[in-house]
């Protein structure tokens, strides 16, 4: 099935179910924070595993106790699609397992 860019309204609607995620119109992003560096690093590895499963990859950054994701779909020219939202949902589901602060 072809991947289509979502309208800005659709993106905003879908983000209502993903608290903490924001959009600038061309991407969706979130930063998570943790008790320290190691849990943040473990979260990065877990996200990498999910991204490989989905075949869809965010710009993923590791700080001292933070993990940042920013993602759009390159194959449609850098717009937000359902693949980006699916990745965000998958990441949200594992965040509590790593002790991410709400
Ligand atoms: C062949 C491979 O699945 C594609 O190049 C994937 C890889 N990961 C990707 N990630 C993102 N964010 N957008 C893409 O279009 C994309 N394409």
Automatic annotation (TrEMBL):
Known EC number: 4.2.1.96
Residues passing through the membrane, by range: none
One Pfam family this sequence matches: Pterin_4a
Catalytic activity: (4aS,6R)-4a-hydroxy-L-erythro-5,6,7,8-tetrahydrobiopterin = (6R)-L-erythro-6,7-dihydrobiopterin + H2O
Family from the record: Belongs to the pterin-4-alpha-carbinolamine dehydratase family.
InterPro entries named in the record: PCD_sf, Pterin_deHydtase
Source organism of this protein record: Streptomyces blastmyceticus
Keywords: Lyase
Protein name according to UniProt: Putative pterin-4-alpha-carbinolamine dehydratase
